[in-house]
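Journal club prep, notes for RB
We'll compare a predicted complex against what the paper describes. Inputs for the flavin-adenine dinucleotide case:
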Amino acid sequence: MSLGLGKIKRSKPQANSETKSKNSMLILGAGYAGLNVYYRIRRRVGVRIIASSDMFVFETARLRSVILNKQNYYVQLPSYIIKETVTDLDIDSRQVITNHGRYEADIIVIAMGSIRSGLDKILYSATKSDRPSIASESRFDEYIALQMALYLNSKKKQVSYAGGFMDWLGEEVSKTVRSVVEESGIKIVDKADYIIPAPQPPAPLDSFIKVDENLMIKDGVYAAGDIVDMGPKLGEMSMKMGIHVANSINVGRPLRFEPMFTYIMDTSSGKGIHIKSNLPWRGSYQSVKVSALRLLFKRFIERYYIYRKGNMGFLALL
Ligand SMILES: Cc1cc2nc3c(=O)[nH]c(=O)nc-3n(C[C@H](O)[C@H](O)[C@H](O)COP(=O)(O)OP(=O)(O)OC[C@H]3O[C@@H](n4cnc5c(N)ncnc54)[C@H](O)[C@@H]3O)c2cc1C
């Protein structure tokens, strides 16, 4: 079957690619989504998690760290992660080929995230500039561009921003975000020098994955996190997708996933804007709250996830 997996590169099995083992479950990717699946089903027999990196990176803390030189933003994951790179996968036969071998499984969860090539360079160059102007190629990344502009602005630079104010989350959200940005002194311009590249699927995939309302591609094959073709890419939502897939596996039947964009933006003036909206998925829920407490909550979340190695824990209930 093609996922459109016809779009996945078909690599010839390599000499060392004999089947390693028949697994009950294979999770591909150990980021926000994959880890949150793993933490909830790891006690089952034959569950494996494969990822090309054994580091968990908390992106929002990384952004803060690069610009403001603050806290740690990554953590080494324990040895349960099989550090291999997926080079091919076949959904019909549920086979995964990595740079070290071939695996088979009854259930596969694809949680390989997304990449924004060149983002590091843009982050570091904008941080060095005295007059950085920021934008994002994808409107769904406006939240990252705006956060970046607010952090840079707190470093007494002359910051400008080119883009929207997350209008796709509703008028209440865009009005609040725009007024915070304008009050901060950030100039609104038409063009920017530092543009956050749009997210792309990681190799070997060459498109984001379409799933049904239960996050399934077909029986026994799920996708979760940024790799899913579902609009905005967000860590909080990726974690919830991971938990959702694990719940479906645990109860033994598909459960309907209800997406919600949930995000706390740091105003850089001591407050947090707590945004919740399901408008991108034809919902009608929209909520925006601004307070110092929300900022403390954001800081707590940053530390909590690092400490818990990406495990969403009780925050999944919020
Ligand atoms: C600068 C920045 C700031 C952000 N700020 C926020 C924020 O404040 N709040 C928020 O909610 N979200 C934020 N995000 C978004 C968030 O980081 C992503 O939505 C989240 O990382 C997606 O989680 P994921 O598990 O789908 O993918 P990832 O966390 O990217 O994990 C992907 C996993 O797949 C593995 N992998 C990839 N390719 C392969 C392969 N071929 N073989 C094997 N393994 C592979 C990787 O090693 C990794 O383990 C931010 C993103 C950026 C870039």
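Talking point for the session: The domain at 5-64+73-115+199-251 is CATH 3.50.50.60 (FAD/NAD(P)-binding domain).
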